[in-house]
Amino acid sequence: MPKNDDKSGAKMTLTDVLPVLRGLLAEPTGTQDVPYEPVILKSLIGPEAIDFAAGPLETPGPLGGLAEGCRGPVLHVDSMDAADTAQEIRQQLGGLLDEYQKANDAGPEVIAIKGMGAIIVDKAAGDGDGPLKNRVALVTGAAGAIGYGICKALLDNGCYVAASDLPGKKLDSFTEDLRELCPERVCGCSLDVTDEGSVKAGFGEAIRKWGGVDIVVINAGLGHVCTLDKMQLADFQRLERVNVDGTLLTIAEASRQLIAQATGGDIIIISTKNVPSPSAGFGAYSATKAACHQLGRIASIEMAPHGVRVNMVAPDAVFTGGKYKSGFWEEVGANRMKARGLDEEGLQQYYRSRNLLKAAITGRHVGNAVLFFVTHQTPTTGATIPVDGGLPDATPR
Questions:
Q1: 68, 88, 122 — which closes off a domain?
Q2: Per the domain annotation, does 2 fall within a domain?
Q3: Using an 8 Å Cβ cutoff, are 53 and 38 in contact?
Q4: Predicted confidence (pLDDT) per residue in 203-234, tens digit
Q5: Fewest beta carbons less than 10 Å away: which of 47, 67, 136, 327?
Q6: What CATH number is given to the structural domain containing 176?
């Protein structure tokens, strides 16, 4: 959060405060691999909550029933300065939390910030358990085969998931399918990775819902099939906007939020086997994904001092994930089938037959690779897991 010297034109919101507060409320574990146990923060920002935050009440009150069962006095915060940096916010809130802890021998379950609303602190939230319990993930380009595999793997391991994609029926339907698996731990976020304001708003939606983010999976991407001599600049730039600019904007916002939260975290970039082993006709895709991959490697260096790990997963052709088909192959598949004289099944068999294990790569496999990184099985950053069944010409990795 950059310092803003013009206080008159700026207005701080809960979105600015929540990641800092969530980081302060996280419990240190004393372990290297998982240094903090996070909490879920539920924001109440309606008129009733604003009135509640403005008053001197010492008990939670009804607040639409959402604060029912909360114990202990409310921690009231009189005001937050819109010009404050994340560090200044941390110092102010940290002091108040320390005073509360000393006075009550426990942390607050309800925090009221004047002019903003109320926050419910839930350390035992959710309907699931597992190594990612109470962690929050945001997945871009979620509404497809790879996105489904990633989201399901995260949900199966206790994570909260903000599934983001372009707004519309596709995202709405995808979100409803995920909610059937875990009603309390899913939200859909409209997010266009090529628009800086949209990226910020998408993160803000997840933060207001659960208090912050711990895991960001950059999966949004576009493909295009064309040889370089026939490449239209506009087509190349269309892929650049999503695969390069979108990755940069998402990494930048993820980094800002994770630094503000100050509890580490993970950024995972869905790369491709085309980075080490490009194919003819895939020039625009291979080049822009190579740039995306390189941004991830640089981010791993820059974010390591903040305890944030940045890693890549590089699949070969993924056609399905659950009931979902790949949007990438819907776009480029017809061209590939025509070039090789194959139908859809034949094309999938072609990709299976070219890897050493003769394996069909699915969204579930990509999700499992993401899980390896975000569950911190090894102290690793800046690395790539290939998910391709074994492709000798794609080595060294």
A1: 122
A2: no
A3: no
A4: 999 999 999 999 999 999 999 999 999 999 99
A5: 47
A6: 3.40.50.720
